Write a sequence for this structure.
């Protein structure tokens, strides 16, 4: 190998390592960092973030974590929940059909309040499994994508409720529970 | 919960509970109180109050499950998962109980009464699941912890049992049958007997 060829090969190798390192760093950056580092959205219609959403797993007993592009906006919470409430095919929602977000706010203590329309209760099939999936689809979607949120309380039609369908206690904010989650 | 072919949770649970009551009274000479004897709705809080005012040794909430997929099958036995406030109440109760002259009832707020019984409740849940799991009719029986409203205020070991999925047509058909009701009764009686120390070889309360 001539000297020149050696340097060319070395340079190519170094470039490859650097590109590899950049890719690795890119891959290592968790999605929430993207959100934090992004400048104020100038054109929210074009900027997106990769959010983790939770839909009903095919076995009907767990939640499936799915990555999905969500329009970047400030505040981000309503965008995340809009995507969470209407899964794209072929995914099945763990939240009753027709449920919409009425309001969303986060307190200084890191408690998020997700106010949903009455369909979330009225349209619920009941059963501990189905109800746990509904509650934790919402709690996990908010806490997984908004790092400032530690717990989530679900409200129905603007009011605090005991349960959505008779089982899961939603009188106080709930922390994330990933024990029901399977990765896609 | 309502099954696709029309099975109704409230009817089947009442039948199952009546069967269980008879079995518990005859085999264990237990005093059994149902939170309802008829087709009436009893608020979650009222169910707990019935258990607490009667100084129940055990609380079992019977249910039939629903899932977003028709394939979901099997029984699930739940004990309470405490949230942050509940966990704090539990710690306070532990500290205070170490001090002489206090009773747990004096120091555990009503809404966190179950915090004091968590270990016993998860032990009871394991026994119930094991007992149900021995009968193949139930397909499977898993144990989970969840923040369930009806368990939170109970001042005794407490579990919630989802016996089968009415959203699964095979399970729905089975759920209303005599065989199923008898199977549930036998499984629960054996689990509760073991828990209460009535079973052969079992000693005092766990």
């Amino acid at each position: 190998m001539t000297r020149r060829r050696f340097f060319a090969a070395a340079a190519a190798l170094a470039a490859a390592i650097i590109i590899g390192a950049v890719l690795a760093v890119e891959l290592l950056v968790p999605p929430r960092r993207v959100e934090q580092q992004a400048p104020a959205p100038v054109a929210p219609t074009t900027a997106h973030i990769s959010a983790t959403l939770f839909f009903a797993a095919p076995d009907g007993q767990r939640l499936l974590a799915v990555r999905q592009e969500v329009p970047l906006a400030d505040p981000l919470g309503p965008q995340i929940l809009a995507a969470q409430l209407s899964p794209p095919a072929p995914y099945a929602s763990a939240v009753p059909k027709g449920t919409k977000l009425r309001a969303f706010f986060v307190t200084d203590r890191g408690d998020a309040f997700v106010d949903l329309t009455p369909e979330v209760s009225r349209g619920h099939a009941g059963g501990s499994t189905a109800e746990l999936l509904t509650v934790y689809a919402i709690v996990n979607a908010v806490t997984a994508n908004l790092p400032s949120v530690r717990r989530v309380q679900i409200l129905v039609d603007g009011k605090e409720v005991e349960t959505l369908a008779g089982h899961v206690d939603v009188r106080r904010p709930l922390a994330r529970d990933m024990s029901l989650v399977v990765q896609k | 919960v309502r099954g696709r072919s029309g099975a109704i949770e409230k009817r089947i649970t009442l039948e199952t509970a009546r069967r269980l009551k008879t079995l518990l009274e005859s085999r264990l000479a237990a005093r059994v109180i149902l939170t309802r004897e008829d087709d009436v709705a009893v608020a979650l809080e009222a169910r707990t109050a019935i258990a607490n005012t009667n100084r129940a040794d055990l609380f079992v909430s019977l249910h039939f499950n629903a899932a977003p997929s028709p394939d979901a099958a099997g029984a699930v036995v739940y004990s309470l998962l405490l949230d942050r406030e509940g966990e704090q109440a539990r710690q306070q109760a532990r500290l205070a109980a170490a001090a002489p002259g206090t009773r747990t009832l004096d120091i555990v707020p009503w809404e966190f009464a179950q915090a004091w019984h968590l270990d016993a409740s998860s032990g009871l849940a394991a026994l119930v699941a094991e007992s149900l799991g021995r009968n193949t009719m139930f397909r499977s029986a898993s144990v989970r912890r969840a923040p369930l409203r009806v368990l939170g205020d109970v001042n005794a070991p407490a579990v919630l049992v989802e016996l089968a999925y009415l959203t699964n047509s095979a399970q729905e058909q089975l759920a209303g049958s005599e065989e199923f009701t008898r199977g549930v009764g036998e499984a629960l009686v054996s689990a509760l007997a073991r828990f209460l120390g009535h079973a052969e070889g079992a000693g005092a309360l766990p």
